[in-house]
Please model this.
Amino acid sequence: MTFGFLSASGGAVDNAEHTVEAVGPERTVKGTVVMGEPVGNAPEVTGVEVIKVRSVPGAEASSASGTCPKSGMRLYADQGDAAMGLRVVGLHLVNCGTRPLQLNGYPKLTIQDEDHHTVDGVQILQGTDQISTGLGGDGRPQPVVLRPGEAALAQLAWRNTTQAGAPVNAPYVRVWATPGADPVTVTPELDLGTTGKLGVGPWRKDETHREPAGTTARP
Model:
C-alpha cells in the first residue's frame, strides 16, 4: 500500500509504502505508517490518504530478504529506472538454498492488470535490444550456474509511448524463473502506452550481488 501525506491545502508532502503480509476474510489489520524526515521547508502534514493498493497471492509473494522459500530461490524486482519514456526494471534471482541452481534462457512472463486478469495483445520479446540498445539484456542466453548465495539478473524493458489506441497499464507480472519453478508475482507497474511490446533479457550472473544481513538459507 502507498500512503500520501498531505498538507493543509491538500498538496502532497511525501509518500510512504507499507506492506501487509496477510489479511483474512472479513478481518481488519491495524498498523502505523511513518513519513520520512522532512526535507527543507516542507509544509506541516495534516492528513494522509491511500494512493495505491497492490496485492499478490501469498504463495507467489516476492522477497528480497528473510527466510528462504521452499524452492531454494528468492525472486524479486528492483525499483527500476526511467528516462525519456524508456523503462528498465531488473528481475533478481538469488540461490538461497544449499544446492547449485542451473539457468539457461529467459524467464517466462505473464502480464496481469489490476484485477489480476491476463493482459492479451502484448508481445513479450526475447531480448531488450528491440526496445533499446545498450541495456544489457541482449545477446544469446548462456548457461548460468548459481552456487548457494549467488544471484542472477534479467531485465525488463519497455517504452510508454502513447499514440492511437488505448494505453496498457499492467501493474503485475507473474514470473517463472525456470520451466519447473513455481510462479512469483512482482509489481513493476508496466505503463506500456500503446507500444504493445515488452522486452525481457536472458538470465546472467549478477557479480555485484551481496546477501543482506538477516537472511536465512534453506536447509
Notes: The CA atoms of residues 82 and 88 lie 7 Å apart. DSSP finds no helices and 17 strands in the chain. The chain has a mean pLDDT of 89.
